[in-house]
# Entry
Amino acid sequence: MRKSIRITAISTSWALLTLVWATVAAAAPAKARAEPVCDLVASDYIAMDGLLDDWRDIARHRIGDGVQMRCVYDRARLFLAIEVNDQRVVRRGGSGKGAREDQLRLGFRVTERDKAKWLEILPGTDTALPVHRWGARPLKASGGSSGDGGQIAVQDSLQERGWSLEAVIPLAAIPGSGPGTPAISLDIAYNDVDGGAAKARRSKALAILRLREAEDSYAAFLQASGNGPGDVRADVLTDVDGVRGAERVVIAGTAIAVISDRYAYMTLPVAAAGDVLYADVVDVRGDGTASIVTAVRQFGGGGSRDLLMIWHVGGRGDFAAALVVEVGKAHGDRVLSNRWSLVPKGPARGQARTAGRDLVIEVGASDVRGWSRESYLETPAADARPILKPWNEQTSAVYYFEGTAVLGGDAKVAGFQVKGGRPR
Ligand SMILES: [Ca+2]
Ligand SMILES: [Ca+2]
# Structure
């Protein structure tokens, strides 16, 4: 399926891409990882009864001080079993305010941009009723909550060496989730009061719970694209397709993948991974939907050219080159390069600053070597916006991004200075 791409002449079209949109059929065997992987189970696999016997085949992960966690999911819901090692469970029958009672707090979200929603659990004891809160609102005594469109339920029980809980959270209730959510970020904070507030032990930990289908998609992508884990140069959770929820964007070798419970990838139009000069995921539009920014080098015709390519990703994992600009040319000893920067959106065009980034491209006398207006005989690129030349009237260009459109292209406003190297 994957074709190798050779650029035989500098003017050859870059638009030769391999696109694969695939789901992973068979589950791969679980492997021990630093980041827990939650396996996919049938929806009746876990009985929400507070007993953990149904979890016996699920791997435990130590998360933080004295806290062990197991997780599974059924595409609609995340199930957790947590065991807290605590010789002395302190409850005073209160609501946990004032930090005078043992309390476990679990924060759920998908990406760092999302605001975590907290599940708070004060375990029941012989003398105190359990307290369970989701988003600061008490769950009903039955354990159910109709908040966020699904049933959140918690059951806790005292154990020989502490206490444990079983919880179910609808995936849709987790901030930042969407169809095929690849991972969930779980903050765990335990307030262990023991001998009084003065001796309170507070432990905090963060776990990235990777969901099995996305994890298998990640492995399948690496295999299909001929890459190994060592070839990965970027791996971020962010929304790139504009459909609710984050995807996992992975840049490995010459390939870029968008991974949810399935994956799509494309191969950049270069001969080798070393020809990918730059690759990152940036919210240039400023609407929370990131784009993929790449710079690549192509060889042919005895020389080379550098292209800056900004990709938008559609809802079915289709990659569209929103902007392709020539930013470098070399032929023998002769070199012409353009400087490019992603700057705060607005000021380079004389507008107020807003969320997002503008692309500023500049050229000056020091960016050319060996070429002059007279000796530069290169044919302008037909498949990219041509490189700026220092001897032309226009020596800068500012592009900006609105939805699927790329606008601008005029020179930057007088007095606008790009600060630093490549601000993001
Ligand atoms: Ca159970
Ligand atoms: Ca999305």
In short: Confidence is low (pLDDT under 50) at residues 1-34, 142-149. The two ends are 36 Å apart (CA to CA). The chain has two domains: 39-211, 275-424.
